[in-house]
Amino acid sequence: MKQHIRLIGWAMGISFTGSLPLGTLNLTVANFSFADNLTGVAMFAVAAIFIEMLLVRLVLLAVKQLERLKQVLWFFNLITGAVLLLLAFNSLSAAWQKLMFQVETPFTSLHPLLSGVLLSIINPLHIPFWIGWTAVLKAKHVLNDNPAAHNFYVLAIGMGTALAFTIYALAGRFLIDHLLEQQVLLNWIVGIALLSTALVQLYKAFVALPVAIVGRATSGNE
């Protein structure tokens, strides 16, 4: 039980903090709230969170399949590090150039459910973000391959995103204005955190490389 509580805490925390920076999803939640469309807020949030949880399920399957190939585990760590490094570069580049978030909310004319599904599907960060963090949590032995652990993990991610959406729905305009003012600082913080995680993953990949080479050589001799 303690292991599951720890996992839920990690997953909720990552999901919550990852959903706080301004993006089309939380901005759309705020826009529905401004229009006093609480039903729209609920429908949009449920659809967006459902898609995110579904994508996390796919990520878990992909990671599990890759981990079964012990000889390419180092390559998986390398890919994870590269993905996190790319995300870090984007955040640090935006911070260095003092770029601000561009307010765009596509699909607002569609039904909230459909809008939530489409915006969540086309979100380019869902898969690389959760591939990276899933690998990190597995390396820390916070997440294992137990089906119950996977269920808690996915559920906690949905809860973390729901909490962030709730804050945007309630705090709306004030939160957006405040985050816009602090966007550069947030980009620095997120970028440095991602860069640190990426360097750890890349280090693990290079440490595991000799083992992978030996394993391939052994398999070839057999």
UniProtKB/TrEMBL annotation:
User: GO CC terms for this protein?
Assistant: plasma membrane
Which biological processes are named by the entry's GO terms? Answer: amino acid transport
* Keyword annotations: Cell membrane, Membrane, Transmembrane, Transmembrane helix
Where it sits in the cell: the answer is:
Cell membrane
Q: What Pfam families does the database record attribute to this sequence?
A: LysE (PF01810)
Membrane-spanning segments: 7-29, 41-60, 72-92, 112-131, 152-176, 188-214
UniProt xrefs under InterPro entries: LeuE-type
- Bilayer topology term: Multi-pass membrane protein
Q: What name appears for this protein in its UniProt entry? A: Threonine/homoserine/homoserine lactone efflux protein
Originating organism: Chitinophaga filiformis (Myxococcus filiformis)
